[in-house]
Structures are given as C-alpha cells and as structure tokens.
From TrEMBL:
InterPro entries: C1GALT1/C1GALT1_chp1, Fringe-like_glycosylTrfase. It comes from Hirsutella rhossiliensis. One of its GO terms (molecular function) is nucleotide binding. It is found in: Membrane. Residues 73-105 are annotated as: Disordered. The keyword Transmembrane applies. Keywords: Glycosyltransferase, Membrane, Nucleotide-binding, Signal-anchor, Transferase, Transmembrane, Transmembrane helix. Residues 211-287 form the Fringe-like glycosyltransferase domain. Its EC number is 2.4.1.122. Belongs to the glycosyltransferase 31 family. Beta3-Gal-T subfamily. It comes from the Eukaryota. The keyword Glycosyltransferase applies. Pathway: Protein modification; protein glycosylation. This is N-acetylgalactosaminide beta-1,3-galactosyltransferase.
Amino acid sequence: MRGIFEKDPGRASAKFNYMLSPRVFQRRSVVLLAVLAVFGFGLLISSARLRERCEESGYCGFAQLSPSLAALGDPYRDHDQNNSMPAHAGKPAAANPEPSAGSECASFPDTSNVLLVMKTGASEAFGKIPNQLMTNLKCLPEFYLFGDMAQKVAGYTIHDSLDTVLPEVTRNNEDFDLYFRQKTCPVDQGSCNKHHDVGRQAWKLDKYKNIHMAEKTYAMRPDYDWYLFVDADTYVVWPTLLKWLEQLDPDEPHYIGSVAYVGYVPFAHGGSGYLVSQATMSKLFKGQDKVANRWDQRVTRECCGDFVFALALKNETDTDVRNAWPTINGEKPHTLPYAKKEWCQPIVTMHHAGAEEVSELYAFEKERDFSYPMRIKDLYHRFVKDQLMARRDDWDNLSDNVFYLNSSAYEYLDWEKKKAKTENLSALEMLAHESFDDCRRACHSLPECLQFRFYHGICAISHTIKHGHPTKQEPYQHWRFMSGWNVKRIEEWVEEHDDCGEVEFPIEDSWLSL
C-alpha cells in the first residue's frame, strides 16, 4: 500500500497532482467515523456532568453569563434601539442589569434626583476614571464625564467640553496647545505627553471647561433637582449628601460649596465640588443660547474656571455662593484637620484622593452598609487613629499653629516668621527650635499642643490633629522633616469630644424662614 495519497503522473489533472485511493479511503472513513462517534459521546457525558455541577453549586459559565453579557449590549452605541431618547453619557448606552438583592448596590441610596458631573482631562483620564467607575460611580443610575477630548474609557463616554469654545479664543492661544496636540496623538496620551510639561499645560486648559460642561449638561439633562460638579480625584459620600438634600429645596436658587477667594470675590472651589440647584441651572441656561461663549474671552484673563463659573452665576442670575465647609471639603482623611469645629460635622466630599484612597473610602462605606451620615470623626477613627506615634521621621504632619525659630540663625520665609511666637516664651519654648527632642518637650509643656514637627530649625506645634504625608529623606539632618504626636493627650481629647449628638448640616432652607 502506497498510502492514502497515490501519486499517478499519468492520470493526474493539471490542477491536482494527487489522487485519493478508493480502497484506503473506505477503510479510513470507517475509522474516522468511529473516532467521531466516541468523541461526541464523551461531550454528551461531560455536558451532563457540568449541568449537574452548575445546579449544585450555583456557579456556571456561559449558561448564566450570556444573558448578562447580552444585556450590556454595545457600549459604543449612542442610542438605545428600543428608545428614541438618547442614552445617558456616563453609563454604557444599553442599561446594565438592576442591582440584585445580594449586590452591594442594593443598600445604596436613591440618587435619581442628583446628577453627578465629573471633570477630567485626556492626560489623566485613564489614571483616575477607571477606579471611580469601580467604586464611587458604580451604583449611580446616571452620571456625566467631561474632559478636553472625546474619549472612551472602558466603554464609558467622556465628552469634549471645549469643542464649543469660540474659535477666536482657541486660535493662537497657547492655553490650547495641549488640546490640539492630543487630538493628533497616534498612540496613548501618556507617550505623546512624555516630553511636554503636561501638568502645566493641562492646568492652563482646565479653566475653560467649567461653564461649558455645565451648559452642555443642562442641555442634555435639564430636569434634575440637583447637579453636583466634582473633579476626577474627588470622593463623594452619597448617603450623607442625600440626607442633607432632604433639608434643601431645589426650587430655591442654590450654589453651594467650599468657599475660596480670588481677591475679595468668593467662589466655590471646584476640586471640593459644588452643588447647583435646578432653580439656579434653569435661571442660567433655560431659554438661553451660547451662555458659555459669553464668558470665553473672560476666562483667558482669569486663573480658574470655577471662579469664572461663580462670576457667571452672579452676573447672569444674581446667585451668590454659600459656604458649606467643612462638609464640602478640599482635604482627605490624612490631611483633614481634626478639631472641635470639624469633629462632629458631616462630610460629603473630599479632594485629592488617589486611586488607593478612593478604594479605601469606598470599602469603608460598604462596611457601613452605606449608612448615613458620615462624620469627620468617623474618618479619624478609621484612617488616622492607629497611625499616630511619638515620632515619625521623614514625615510632615502639617503642624502649623505656632512656630518657634531663631530668625538670626537662618533665613526664613515671611509667612514662617509671621507664625513665630517671639514674646512671653517659657524656658522650654525658648529652646524648642534647637532639636526634635526640644520641640517635643515644648509641646508637652503646652496644654493645647496635640502634635508637632521639626524641620530646618523650626519647631511647629498644632492645636488640631492631623496625620500628614511622607517627605523626601534629606541627606542633612537639619533639613529633615520629623513629626511627633502626643498620643495620650490626643486620646483624652477624642474621648472628651466623641459624643456628637444629632447631625447638623451646614445649610438648611428652614434657616431662611426664621
């Protein structure tokens, strides 16, 4: 037997060089059919066993996953095929399955009357947005993401807030160098930005976003009671916020935030987040056309977009900002001041939260079963209390109430000299600037001192509790940051102030009727 293929040059066609042997083909066919039959029988047995295992354990593969996958649909669609209304911008276009009774979102409060609007940038979006999607945004039925370029992050839409800025403002304006450059980037933005000062460029571009994203948001979703504007590194404590909003009327002209100033003009700090009522948004945008464009030229002359938004609200609607600090806050657990004024206050937002910190805050909320309200003291007990110690080197605990220094020995900045105590010094205070141990002794001698830090010949003491952040390890001891806490005194202070009573929110409409 020559084999399955017999070469026959005399009978082969021009197209085929080989012919099949009929005799061998019949024998091999029988063998192949037998193998296939055995293989098919094995598959049937495996399938039956797999089905039994799925039913017993509740764990299965495509049999249970495929309906969910089908429900997700195509996240890049702009409209639901079964609905003429446009799908919302935050979540994928097709609706996700409703949270089940066993899901963490089942105990999440109803946020259907509040629209979150989160601001980011193309240079940071993939570093900040994914973690928000997995945590703080996970249980929201709807939200909007705005940046400086149209993007998709894990199927979620980021809208370009700047595509409607006046051409005469963007043209030949170095503030928009990053905006136009990133549109031509053929790879990831990180690679394209590697050789540019992207931090400075992104900051200069950012100020043009605020009023445009507010106008775009209202055009797409004009019927919400409340609009909460935050940054991509802002954490929102939703249960506390929603309890607070029960005390506020969305039909009143509210613009609420943590107040900052440019000169003598107050505005709500954007990173801390600001809350705008339906009445204010409709007064600014309803029936109006190109409101943001009226402010494009003004933005070029100002520092910040949140400041210009406040100017627009004041000029267009005569609405003033109302201060809600420390409930709306620009700090985070490790940099918050824990003192009598802040201790019992409810907390709604925190700023400059890194991905790990956002994850930890979300885990804390889950442990609390999203109960409300969260107070500032709760953050201390969870994140700070166990981190305090007598001494931590290469650490700045942000002590800054009173400074002790020798101005004749070193040159100090004006603000440092202004904080220096120079009169009525005790013997220990006079030596406080000499060393870390001298600084510690001075702190322990002062009843109001809870913590201290020593660096560059400065002993700084604090009447509030702060945790702080690590610093660079300096080669010379004189420049090294060293921090300490009077742990026993802090424990006594906490015990004295830990009973808070009922929660009091910073702004309530009932106050206006008194």
